C-alpha cells in the first residue's frame, strides 16, 4: 500500500499525463487557428504598383495581416497581361505563403498562350473574389446613337463602318466586343490601344465610334459629359451605373463581368484556403474596407467554390471564342 506522499505524487503524475494528453488533443484546433505557416505572405500582382489592382491588394492585405499574424507583401510580376504572374504562382510551393491577385484576364491567358504551362482552373486554389464589374459601352456625347438599340441598328445599316476600342488584342475588353458582334450579328472592327485614356480620347473626337472600357477609367469621361454610356456588359444594370441597361437585357444569356480576387497554387491545404477566405470575408464586411475597394468595382466576396465556378465558366467561354479569332500564340 502506498504512503500518503507516494499517493500524492501518483496523483500529480496522473494529472500531468492527463494535461499532456489534453494538450495533444487540443493541438490540431490551435494549429488550425495558425494554419498559415510562419513568415510573410506574398501576393503576386500582374500589374504595376499604383493601379487599382495594387490598391485593392494592399487594402485587403492590411486588413487581414493582423488577424493572420503575418506580414503581407505585394510583389508585381509584369508581363504578357498577367501570364508571368500566373506562371510564377502556379509553380510556387502550395503552403499559403505565395498568392495570386486574379484578374478577369486570367482565364483568357492559356487560351491564347499555348505554352502557358498551366490550366487556368485546375492549377489554382481560388480563395475569394474581391471586386466585380462589367464593362461600359459608350459613344461620344453627340453621337447619333442615343441608346444601345440605336447603336446596333445603325451598325446593321452601315456594315463595316463602326469600330470599338480596347486595351489590346486578346484583352477582356477586346473579347467582349467580339461577343457583342456575335450576339447581335454586327461587324464592329477592333482598334486596340495601349491605354484606356488614349482610346477614350479618340472616341470623344470621333476617330472611333464605340468605347468598351472599365467603369474606373470611363467614369471621369462620363461625369464630364464627354461620352454617353449606352450599356454595361452584364446581364442587367450594375450598381456602378444603375441607370444604364445591361447588354443581357437585349440578348438573353449575355453576361460578361470582370473581377479581382485571390488564389493560391493548387494543392494548397484546404485549411489554409478556408482560413484565408474567412479573414477576407470578415474584412469585407467592414464599411470602410468596402469603400476603399469600390475604386475597382463593386466589393464582393465569395466562397472558394463560387470563385472557382466563376473562373471555370469564363475559361469555357473564352476557349471557345479565341480559336475563332485566330489569336493563339
Description:
- By secondary structure, this protein is α/β, with parallel strands linked by helices.
- It has two domains: 162 residues, D-Maltodextrin-Binding Protein, domain 2; 114 residues, Periplasmic binding protein-like II (D-Maltodextrin-Binding Protein, domain 2).
- The strands form two sheets. A six-stranded mixed sheet has the order 2-1-3-10-4-11, sandwiched between helices. The protein has a five-stranded mixed sheet with strand order 7-6-8-5-9, sandwiched between helices.
- Helix 2 links the parallel strand 1 and strand 2.
- Helix 2 packs across helix 9.
- The chain is globular, with a radius of gyration of 25 Å.
- The protein starts with a helix and ends with a helix.
- The N terminus is likely disordered.
Structure described in brief:
The chain has 329 residues and is of the alpha/beta class.
Helix proportion of residues, in percent?
A: 40-55%
CATH fold node name of the largest domain = D-Maltodextrin-Binding Protein, domain 2
The termini sit apart by 86 Å
Which sequence of SSEs, written as H and E, runs from N to C?
HEHEHEHEEHEHEHEHEEHHEH
What is the CATH superfamily label of the largest domain? Bordetella uptake gene, domain 1
Helix run count: 11
Radius of gyration: 25 Å
Topology:
Blueprint: H1 4-33, E1 41-45, H2 52-68, E2 72-76, H3 83-90, E3 98-103, H4 109-112, E4 124-134, E5 136-140, H5 148-157, E6 163-166, H6 172-184, E7 189-192, H7 196-204, E8 210-213, H8 215-223, E9 227-232, E10 257-265, H9 270-283, H10 287-293, E11 298-299, H11 304-325
Helix pairs in contact: 2-9
Amino acid at each position: 500500500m502506498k504512503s500518503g506522499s507516494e499517493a500524492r505524487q501518483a496523483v500529480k503524475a496522473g494529472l500531468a499525463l492527463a494535461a499532456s494528453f489534453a494538450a495533444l488533443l487540443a493541438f490540431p484546433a490551435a494549429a488550425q487557428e495558425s494554419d498559415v505557416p510562419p513568415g510573410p505572405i506574398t501576393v503576386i500582382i500582374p500589374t504595376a504598383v499604383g493601379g487599382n489592382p495594387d490598391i485593392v491588394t494592399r487594402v485587403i492585405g492590411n486588413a487581414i495581416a493582423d488577424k493572420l499574424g503575418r506580414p503581407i507583401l505585394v510583389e508585381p510580376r509584369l508581363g504578357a497581361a498577367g501570364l508571368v504572374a500566373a506562371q510564377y504562382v502556379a509553380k510556387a510551393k502550395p503552403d499559403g505563403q505565395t498568392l495570386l491577385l486574379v484578374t478577369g484576364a486570367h482565364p483568357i491567358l492559356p487560351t491564347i498562350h499555348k505554352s502557358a504551362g498551366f490550366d487556368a482552373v485546375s492549377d489554382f486554389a481560388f480563395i475569394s473574389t474581391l471586386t466585380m464589374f462589367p464593362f461600359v459601352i459608350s459613344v461620344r456625347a453627340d453621337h447619333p446613337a442615343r441608346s444601345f438599340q440605336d447603336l446596333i441598328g445603325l451598325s446593321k445599316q452601315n456594315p463595316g463602318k463602326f469600330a470599338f476600342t480596347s486595351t489590346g488584342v486578346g484583352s477582356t475588353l477586346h473579347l467582349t466586343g467580339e461577343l457583342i458582334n456575335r450576339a447581335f450579328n454586327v461587324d464592329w472592327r477592333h482598334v486596340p490601344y495601349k491605354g484606356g485614356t488614349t482610346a477614350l480620347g479618340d472616341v470623344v473626337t470621333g476617330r472611333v465610334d464605340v468605347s468598351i472600357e472599365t467603369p474606373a477609367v470611363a467614369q471621369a469621361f462620363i461625369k464630364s459629359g464627354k461620352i454617353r454610356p449606352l450599356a454595361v456588359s452584364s446581364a442587367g444594370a450594375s450598381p456602378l451605373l444603375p441607370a444604364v441597361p445591361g447588354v443581357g437585357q437585349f440578348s438573353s444569356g449575355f453576361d460578361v463581368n470582370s473581377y479581382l480576387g485571390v488564389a493560391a497554387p493548387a494543392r494548397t491545404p484546404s485549411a489554409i484556403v478556408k482560413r484565408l477566405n474567412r479573414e477576407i470575408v470578415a474584412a469585407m464586411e467592414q464599411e470602410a474596407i468596402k469603400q476603399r475597394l469600390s475604386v475597382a468595382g463593386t466589393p464582393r466576396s465569395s466562397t472558394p467554390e463560387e470563385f472557382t465556378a466563376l473562373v471555370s465558366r469564363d475559361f469555357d467561354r473564352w476557349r471557345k471564342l479565341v480559336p475563332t479569332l485566330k489569336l493563339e500564340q
